[in-house]
Sequence to fold (643 residues):
Amino acid sequence: MARDERVFCIGEDIGIPGGWGGAFTVTLGLEQDFRERIIDTPISEAGLFGVALGAAIMGLRPVADVQYGDFLFCAMDQVVNQIATMRYMSGGKVTVPLVMRAPVGATGRGAQHARNPEAIFYGIPGLKIVCPATAYDAKGLLKAAVREDNPVLIFEHKLLYGSKGARAETEALDASSEVPEEDYVVPLGEGIVRREGTHVTVIANLLMMHRALLAAERLAGEGISAEVIDPRSLVPFDWELVEASVGKTMRAVVVEEGPRTGGIGAEIAASLAERMSDYLLAPVGRVASPDIPVPFAPPMEEFYRPTVERIVEAARGVVVGSGG
Amino acid sequence: MAYDTQFLLGLYRQMVLIRQFEERVKFLFLEGVMPGTIHQYQGQEAVAVGVCSALEAQDVITSTHRPHGHALAKGLSIESLMGELFGKVTGCCHGKGGSMHVGDLEKGMVPAIAIVGGGVPIATGIGLSFKLRQEPRVAVCFMGDGATNEGAFHEAVNMGAIWSLPVVYVIENNRYSASTPICQTARVERLTERAHAYGIPGVTVDGNDVLTVHEAAQVAVERARSGAGPTLLEAMTYRITGHSRRDPCLYQPEEERKQALAEEPIGRYGAWLLAEGTAEQAALDQARAEVDAEIEEAVRAAQAAPAPAPEAALEDVFA
Fold:
């Protein structure tokens, strides 16, 4: 915002003095430096996403956020019918530099503040989608998104916002990492190898990336070498990185927190089957949540979301079942 | 109010242009020459022309699934519209938009938004951009009566109101949301009664009288431009053609239709110009002949223009 005066934030409870800086403190205190560019809206998601679109096509660079990813559905017409199609319908004449932020993940709040809706938006042409798993990527991807001339949807995991502070979640994971003070971007569409391995490629983002790393550690104890890839962006997707890895390991497991049917894993597995059939020694494994709404009771929520153990089992199954 | 003769004749010409354009398009469509579907504007010309004549070139409008009249009134060329309706590369959206998405931001018209009510937040955001940049520009949101029953309408008009944005919300009340009469879907007599709920002025005018619309729009546009905030402007009008292709309008009572035809805006305004001595019949006939010739030329050009390559469909998803 300091670098580009066209950038402004718009959302609910994002800059009320004495408030929380958004549901998860992401914009806390920004109103002190940028009062004119921190716009608190009524509880009107369809309205605020449409307003952001209108401002974007006139050359501003809005960052619109919802308090919970589930609320994106209140703005679905604007996100899907308007934001994702505006440039296309105009024949390429209109530019939509618009960032949308949405917290996702089950955190003891029941079914309506919990969903991982990434797969639903993954199937909407016209939206770029990123999912930062570390503090470094959160900064770098946000900066890249703000500088992008297309709509970018950023899914942020509630358990990665931080284990400290007023709004820290009880089960929050320490996702902190070295975050340089200086300006840098993590380019959209660039994945990263989080851990190198030779027997199986585990593809996971957000919270699942951290669990995949823990799983890889355990697998190593069993003599299975897992390579963990964090795609960081879903659209565009870094196929080059994934293909290079699967070309080496010849096995893959996709992990996601959302439900299994029609999930991210389904799309990646199908694409890998098409692209890598000469290499794959086993069908691509999928680890996902069951096809149910997110439950409340802690033991049920724990049962719902893929655990380290389930990732270990899936990877082991793929490797052992194919002579690894 | 005293008006310049050229201005008065210009309004007539604009309305006739829209009417003749729509009649020609209807014919092309029924002949099976034109692809897609169409939602036409016959009978509502005074609204687009009355409002847009109160705007400056740098002002921006949003439109609806019934956008041809708004596009012509905002200054898009007949060729670029006809080209788009034929799905040709010469169209204002290079064939990617079609009838329901015509527009050209360079001319101050966002590609038309065919989800009812969907344009209301967008126009509000355009107004927000003008306010943040302190530009003396105004956004106008055209919508039908049906849009006032969408949640997006309420959310967005409220935001325009609380932030005092330079927006004019124009309801073209043609009395039907597709085939359902508005009296069946709203309890209020005038839709502008809803303006009170947002704390902004609501003005209902005769939408078939182009000068009345123009004057009401001017007041609302001035108010917006001065920073005083939005207005909800309702123009009472009537669609004297089908909702969309091949709609015989069996839901419009015979008597009501007959009266609407007697009150349609072009005949009324033409008669007024003659009665006032502003124009001779010959001048009105000449205006019609001129626009007919321009439309024929546009049809010829559009039919001769190349169709897009099928694989060009893959372009323009992202910048």
